[in-house]
Write a structure and sequence with these properties.
It is built from 17 helices and 2 strands. It has helices at about 1-15, 15-60, 65-75, 105-110, 130-145, 150-155, 160, 165-200, 200-225, 235-260, 270-280, 285-295, 315-325, 330-350, 355-365, 370-395, 400-405; strands at about 75-80, 100. α5 (about 130-145) runs antiparallel to α10 (about 235-260).
Length: about 425
């Protein structure tokens, strides 16, 4: 313990080291605070949407006397609530919609028309704790460890220290533990506060803390390998800075460009436009042909499929669904392409530990690409139930009134039901 106290005292005498640790602590605290604010803002927006739903349904009930009107004018809320760890790693939540109000109309346009944000503008990501761990903490570790041996050699003390009995155990080991431990402490304390505020389960909090520890251990190992080469402190610092730049910025960006070039995906906005255009073209197609295609999918509604000479909602919602089928293959290609890119990025993370650790944090926080695709799938499952609920009324000619609005299926963020 005396060795650790001595090294802690020596570290405390270094104004530069204390300033670096204090700055990292402030950055980690700011990252946690901004993450908590973002999560709170998302939850508040979801709560406002849900709080306004009863009033909207009451207004709808005042004039709805037909299932078609209920399906057309009835917006239903769906949402993707932030997890208890989202504050620490916001991931894709800064570019992906966290809530969506849908109708029983063609769905694909409703999903992809929300892709109004330019993903390139969000490449650096939000400033959160994960950003601090991946990008800033390594720089502080480099500053504290690059001259571990070279600094003593340049001061003329290295050979005397190495001549000390059990120098590795009594000098170098405690010095490494104190310096790396100081970085870990200034990262883990703000995280622990954030986890306590959000009520994160202990096991999930420990798992996330474990990733932070792995990130620090990786850069500690890199710094020690370079510091042991016997070069000057300036050369060590420059070498480690170059490694940081390559491993955290250049290589992940190059891997991302290569993955995006190798796995092409349809444009979401173009997919939404094609969906809309096909739906609009449905007005001009022969009604009988439209109904035949629809009834091939829903033969149980054939007995009630006869159309009057004038407009009827059953025909309208039939070509709405056919509009979704028109872009179904492109939509699947889009989802498969995004998932494939994520899989390749995850594989690249094994070769690029900083990128891999960042992905692990987002995955644990449920803010990664897989979480967003899962939300879309829950929306699709819910939309199917919503459509089929109204089909039963439209094709059976059952009366539909305000009381029936209360039986409309509701979205469950956990399962889409």
């Amino acid at each position: 313990m005396s060795d650790l106290k001595r090294e802690a005292w020596l570290l405390g005498r270094s104004r530069a080291a204390l300033a670096a640790l204090l700055l990292l602590f402030l950055c980690a605290g700011a990252g946690v605070a901004l993450g908590l604010a973002t999560v709170s803002r998302d939850r508040a927006a979801i709560d406002r949407m849900l709080a306004g739903q009863p009033a909207e349904e009451s207004a709808l009930a005042a004039f709805v006397d037909d299932a078609g009107y209920g399906a057309y004018y009835g917006f239903q809320p769906t949402w993707n609530p932030p997890s208890d760890l989202a504050f620490a790693a916001l991931g894709n939540r800064d570019i992906a919609p966290t809530m969506l109000r849908i109708r029983a109309l063609a769905l694909e346009g409703q999903i992809y028309e929300n892709e109004a944000a330019n993903p390139e503008l969000a490449l650096p990501g939000r400033f959160d704790l994960a950003f601090v761990v991946v990008y800033l903490a390594p720089l502080v570790l480099i500053a504290l460890l690059h001259d571990l041996w070279s600094g003593e050699r340049e001061a003329g003390r290295l050979y005397a220290l190495q001549a000390t009995p059990a120098a590795r155990r009594h000098i170098w080991g405690p010095r490494i533990v104190v310096r790396a431990g100081g970085v870990l402490a200034v990262l883990l304390v703000p995280f622990a506060v954030g986890a306590a505020i959000t009520g994160t389960s202990p096991l999930r909090a420990l798992a996330f803390a474990g990733i932070i520890v792995l990130a620090c251990l990786f850069w500690t190992a890199v710094a020690l390998l370079v510091a042991r080469r016997g070069n000057s402190s300036a050369v060590n610092a420059a070498s480690l800075a170059a490694l940081w730049f390559a491993l955290t910025l250049v290589a992940p960006a190059a891997a991302g460009l290569a993955i995006n070039a190798g796995v092409t995906v349809p444009d979401g906005a173009a997919l939404a436009r094609e969906n809309r255009e096909d739906v609009h073209a449905g007005w001009d197609r022969p009604r009988d042909a439209t109904m035949q295609r629809f009834l091939a999918l829903y033969p149980q509604h054939a007995p009630g499929s006869a159309l009057p000479p004038t407009f009827h909602w059953k025909w309208y919602f039939a070509f709405q669904h056919l509009g979704d089928l028109h872009v179904a293959s492109a939509s699947k290609a889009y989802r498969d392409g995004i998932a494939r890119r994520a899989d390749l990025a995850r594989a690249a993370g094994w070769l690029l530990p900083p990128a891999g650790l960042s992905q692990a944090m987002a995955r644990l926080a449920r803010t990664d690409v897989a979480a967003q695709l899962a939300y879309q799938q829950r929306i699709r499952a819910y939309h199917t139930r919503l459509r089929e609920f109204y089909y039963d009324y439209l094709f059976s000619e059952k009366p539909f009134g305000p009381a029936d609005l209360a039986t409309v299926p509701r979205f469950d963020p956990a399962g889409g039901m």
